[in-house]
Amino acid sequence: MTGREDWLELTRESALDPEQRICDPHHHFWNHPNSRYLAEEFLQDIGGGHRIVKTVSVECLQFYDASAATQMQAVGETVTVDRIAREAAQEDGSDIAAGIVGFADLMLGDAVRPVLEAHLVASPRFRGIRHATAWHADEKIHNAHTNPVENQLGLETFRAGLKQVAEMELSFDAWLYQTQLPELTDLAEAIPDLNIVLNHMAGPLGIGPYRERREQEYQAWKEHMTDLARCENVSVKLGGRTMALSGFGWSKRSEPPGSEELAAATAPYFEACIELFGPDRCMFESNFPVDKAGCSYTVLWNAYKRVANIYSQAERDQLFHDTAVRFYRLDNC
Fold it and tell me: What letter would DSSP give residue 177?
C-alpha cells in the first residue's frame, strides 16, 4: 500500500459518467519496503466506478534481473509486469498492463537494439521504452531516477539509440521538465519517424524558484508547447498535476481536494494541450500511484471528466480512450 488510504477516504465521490470507456495510459507497479503497489492495490483503486477497460504500465526501476548483464537487467521489469497482467486477466478478466513501457539505456546507442529485442521476447505486450531525462540545475528540483545529464536529448549517442527504437516501430515516452521542452522539439524534428508521447505535459513546475511564478511560467510553458505541437509525431499525456512538483500543495492539506477544485486548478493546462495538439494527440493519464499523493483515483478521473465536459462525445472518446489505444497499438490486445 502507499500509506495514503485513510487520508484519501476523507474526500469520497461517486464516479461521474461511469459508461465512458477509459484506457489509462500511464501507471506504475512497484514493491518498495514501505510502499507496495501491485495488481491488488491498483485494481482496488480502479474499482471506484470508472470504466477502465485497458491500462499501460510504465517503467519505474523495479523488478530488475540482477543475474543478467547490466544492460539487460531492466528486461526483468517487463517479465514481471507481463506476469502481473496475465494473472490479473486469469483471475477476473482485468486488462491491466495491456501495454508495457519498459526501460532501455539509450546511451548504448546502436547497441541498444538487443535490449529492445529482449523486451519484445519477454512480453507480447511490450510497446516502447521510457528513458527519463528530467533534469534541472536547481537542487530543490529532483532529477529523474535514471540519473540524466544536461541536454541528454541532444546527445548523438542517445539519439542513435532512439533511432533504433523508431526502426523497430516502438514508441518513446519522454519524461522531462518544462525547461527542457525546446530540446524535445529539436529531437522530434530530427527523428520524425519516432512516435513520442510527452509524459505529464512536461511537469510544469511550481516548486523551488518557480513557486511564486506560476502565471509567468504557465505562459513560458505554453509557448514551448506551441512549438512542440508543430511536430506531428508527438502526443501528450494529460496529467501529473497532483505530483508535489506542481506546487499546488494538496498532499499537505488536512483533507484531499475534490474533483471540482482539481478541475478548476488544472483545466488551463489540459485545455491548452488539447487546443494545441488536438484530442487525437492527447490522452488523460492517472500516473498512479505517484499522483495518489494528491487525490484518489476516482476523484482524479472525475476532475478529468469535468474538464472534458466542454468537448463533444467523439472528442471525449479520443481523450479518454481512443488516442491511447491507437498510440500504444492496443486494438488487438
Answer: -
HSE of 271, CA atoms in CB hemisphere, 13 A: 14
**75-92 and 113-122 helices cross at what angle (nearest 10)?**
20
Angle 214-229/259-277 helices, nearest 10 degrees? 40
Which domains, ranges and CATH numbers included, belong to the chain? Answer: 20-327 (3.20.20.140)
Question: 156-167 and 181-190 helices cross at what angle (nearest 10)?
Answer: 50
User: Cα–Cα–Cα angle for 297, 302, 304, nearest 5°?
Assistant: 100
Question: CA of 187: how far to CAs of 76, 131, 163, 233, 234, in Å?
Answer: 29, 14, 11, 11, 10
Read off the pLDDT of residues 268-315 as tens digits, 9 standing for 90 and up. Answer: 999 999 999 999 999 999 999 999 999 999 999 999 999 999 999 999
pLDDT at 212: 86
pLDDT at 215 over 90: no
